[in-house]
Structures are given as structure tokens and as C-alpha cells.
Design goal:
Blueprint: E1 4-8, H1 9-19, E2 28-36, E3 41-49, H2 64-81, E4 86-95, H3 103-115, E5 120-129, E6 136-148, E7 151-156, E8 158-162, H4 169-197, H5 203-263
Parallel strand pairs: 1-3, 1-8, 4-5
Antiparallel strand pairs: 2-3, 2-4, 5-6, 6-7
Length: 264
């Protein structure tokens, strides 16, 4: 029985950024990792952001095609790093509502657990307000589904977020930077579907639909691309300072090593 999940900090960052991309509908993705200790421990090291086939405020769905694509991605990563990686779970968001899984979430989780008993679900509740500080907050829960006769209930799984220092760091960075493009694809698909279904619409309706798409893309730039760019620039500056400090320490150690050699 699964007892604990270790979540890479980079994957947590991708998931939270994805969850914060919209406060009107739920988002979703799949999680890639390893299973240890006879299925009692799961390590999550990468994520796959899924495009929503249908935007809904209260539920998300994963198609068989998306699951196959995520499985192929896991196999590619496994070959790159030489580790037995596979799809180990899924995540989705709860904007403006409690972090606890709904009956639909429990049903979805139960379905995947029948195929893999170690499969785990993670929910990111976003756009919440902390009542004590009145500041925005994010809540996270990790769970599995338990069947009790005809009813289903949640079983919370202990989760620990760890710093990720392995070779998958670059992959998670690329996943994060792909997020705005994936969100734009969703908007483009919604716009094209509307156009194809209503070819006889008048000019005002067409202008309205085009304006809605423009506003949506502007939202992506304002709420996702710009803050992400600013954060990456700040991170690059911090890494430059750390690199400079490490070079100074290396130089000092080399001087000490030379002095020790001369004294021998």
C-alpha cells in the first residue's frame, strides 16, 4: 500500500504555475516518476501538461491518447536518464474551492488505481484567501481512492516536496516554458471550433469571437509569460551570483592546496 510521495520542487512549481493560469476552469496534467519499496513510496520527478479538450469549471478529463503520449514521454525520459520512469499519477486544480477531491475525482482516481495500485492524485487548490492574513494562498493534497462497498472515500497520502538536483532539472524547466504555448493552443482550438461551427455568423459575432480570443491571449501574456520571464531573469541573476561565489571559493581552495604542497 502506498504510504508516501516525494514531489520534486521543480514539478511542484510547474503544477502551481499551471493551476494559476486560470481561475475559471480546472486544469490537469500527468506525473512521471518511480515506484520504490514494493509500491509503498513514489518519487515524482517530471510532469506532462495536458491540453484541455473541453474547458469545465468543475471537472477535467484525460483522454486515452493523452495517456499514451505521456507514457511515451516517460519512456523517452527513462532512456535519457537510465531510470525506470513511468506515469505514476495525475494532478489538477480546484480554483476558488476546497482542496478535497470531489466524487468525480475519486471515481477517476479509482479507475487508474485498478490499473496501478501505486497511482496517486494531487490537487492544487488556488485563488483561495487566507482568513487570518487575507493573503492569497495555495493548498495541496495528495490522495488515493478507497472503495467502501458502493461508496468511495479519499485516503490522504503523506507528501514531501524535495529540491531536484538531478538531470531532469532541464526537462522540468522546458515544461515550464512550454506552458504559455500550450495555453495559447487551447485558445486557438476554441476559436477555430467556434468559427467552423458558425460559418454563417454575422460580422459582429465574428468580431466578438476574435476579440474574446485576443483578450484571452493577452491574459496569458500578462498573467503567465511576463511573470515567468521576470522570475527566470531573477533566477539567472541569482545563479550568476552563486557562480561567482563558487569560483572565488574554488580559487581560494586552489591557493590553499598549492601552499600545502609547498610545505610538504
Amino acid at each position: 500500500m502506498l504510504t508516501k510521495v516525494l514531489l520534486s520542487s521543480d514539478v511542484a512549481l510547474v503544477c502551481v504555475q499551471h493551476a494559476l493560469s486560470t481561475e475559471k476552469e480546472e486544469i490537469m496534467g500527468l506525473l512521471i516518476g518511480e515506484v520504490h519499496n514494493n509500491g509503498t513510496l513514489v518519487t515524482i520527478v517530471s510532469s506532462v501538461i495536458l491540453r484541455r479538450l473541453d474547458k469545465k469549471p468543475d471537472r477535467v478529463e484525460i483522454s486515452e491518447e493523452q495517456l499514451v503520449q505521456a507514457t511515451l514521454r516517460a519512456e523517452e525520459l527513462a532512456a535519457e536518464v537510465g531510470r525506470p520512469l513511468r506515469v505514476v499519477g495525475w494532478y489538477h486544480s480546484h480554483p476558488h474551492i476546497t482542496v478535497w477531491p470531489s466524487h468525480v475525482d475519486l471515481s477517476t482516481q479509482s479507475m487508474y488505481q485498478r490499473m496501478d495500485s501505486s497511482f496517486v492524485g494531487i490537487i492544487f487548490a488556488v485563488f483561495l484567501t487566507d482568513q487570518s492574513t487575507k493573503a492569497p494562498s495555495v493548498q495541496i493534497t495528495c490522495f488515493q481512492s478507497v472503495n467502501e462497498g458502493s461508496n468511495q472515500s479519499r485516503r490522504e497520502i503523506e507528501m514531501e516536496i524535495l529540491n531536484n538536483n538531478d538531470s531532469l532539472l532541464i526537462n522540468n524547466f522546458e515544461t515550464l516554458t512550454q506552458l504559455p504555448a500550450i495555453l495559447k493552443q487551447e485558445e486557438d482550438e476554441a476559436f477555430n471550433n467556434e468559427v467552423s461551427q458558425n460559418e454563417t455568423d454575422d460580422i459582429l459575432t465574428k468580431q466578438h469571437n476574435a476579440a474574446v480570443r485576443t483578450i484571452a491571449i493577452g491574459h496569458i501574456v500578462d498573467k503567465m509569460s511576463r511573470p515567468m520571464l521576470e522570475a527566470l531573469v531573477a533566477r539567472n541573476e541569482l545563479n550568476s551570483v552563486r557562480l561567482k561565489t563558487l569560483k572565488q571559493q574554488h580559487q581560494q581552495m586552489m591557493v590553499k592546496l598549492e601552499n600545502m604542497s609547498c610545505n610538504i
